[in-house]
Input
Amino acid sequence: MAADRTDTIAAIATAPGAGGIGVVRVSGKRVPDIAAQLLGQAAKPRHAHLMDLCDAAGQCIDTGLLLLFPAPASFTGEDVMELQLHGSQAVLRMALRRLHELGARPARAGEFSERAFLNGKLDLTQAEAIADLINAGSEAAARAAQRSLHGEFSQQVDALAAAILATRVQVEAAIDFGDEDIPALSLQGLIAQLTQAQSGLQALMQAAERGRRLNDGLHVVILGRPNVGKSSLLNALAADERAIVTSQAGTTRDLLREVIRIDGAELTLVDTAGLRESHDAIEREGIRRALSEADRADLIVHVVEEAADVPLERTQTAERLVVHNKIDMSHGSPCREWIEGVEHIHLSARSGAGLDLLRESLAQHAGAGASEAGSFSARQRHVLALERALESVQDALRALAQQGSWELAAEDLRHAHAQLGEITGAVSTEDVLGQIFANFCIGK
Ligand code: GDP
Output
């Protein structure tokens, strides 16, 4: 009986505060029975029943609507019931208490989505897209999450996984039977297949990285010597005077953050202490923080005064662009150019000339704008899994082409396939699932 009792979960799915509609969602085997007890009659599927919700003593809690979605045509794939009530926390809590008395238990965070995943209603990337949609910080991020929810990302992952599996089967057949016995099999053919999988993975990894940036927001760190105009640039982009700008070098000792939106993409800009040799302990601490922030950046905007400074080489991981500020002083014109693969933008934070070029560049780095078409939301875990799958395919290529080891190649391909399976949840351990769903809200 105890197991039966815990099968059914209930939680507040929407609680908008006074005035709005609150939704309580219930999922599990006892749902039809609970619905019948609340209505005094069996609930009709997908029909809005007007209901007086009463407590155990028969006292009315609220009047609202009850909707029943029988399994399997429901969000979780189980019997699901939704109660639409007045959105006050007190009413919703009383409603939940009543549901608990009738045999439901409180849902854990993400448990509805987890059940939808376990019942094959969603794959993992789609379940994650729900959380991303709820947390979307920008319209572009919401649109990208919507596309993931519709399976655009998973379809591409599945197609690559299928191609890699097909190659692996051929390689294993060659090991078992010897390649002479399989006329259709040629080493060149296998290498061609793997080369194609390699470029597919590279393209998907780039798209996933764009999706991750749309989702998380691009983390941009502004670095440069004192007084080159870092704070002025942050202010000009954020179009207010949040950072204190002074002509005395070394004012921005702590990190200042601004979240801005360009073309629907979210960016966090971090202004840092000017980088220079300093004996001042507080300033040195500011510089240490600036450099450690730069280690976690997606993009470093290195500000220099027109032709007067040499770009820093301290940060290797993030992409970098060099802003040549104060062109008004040298009577230069705004421009955007690439020198030896590094992007340079000439502008004036004070006059605003060339700021549009910087905005355009930031939007592109953030994954917004023209390149948004077809983009989907993704997470760091997806990018890392794609990266590992790509490495394994490259190992397999080397094993076949250079080492002539079919066994090694088969093992590498098995690994690549498993990595892709982890993205959509086709292959997943309970640990991974626990981590993913624990980050959801309760009621989702
Ligand atoms: P930070 O130390 O790098 O953050 O530099 P600030 O933003 O505090 O700017 C230092 C000084 O340079 C201030 O007096 C700013 O008004 C000035 N400044 C910033 N940008 C420009 C610019 O584009 N043109 C000119 N002429 N002065 C600027």
Observations:
- The first strand starts at residue 9 and ends at 14.
- The radius of gyration is 28 Å.
- The chain has three domains: 9-122, 135-214+377-425, 218-365.
- DSSP finds 15 helices and 13 strands in the chain.
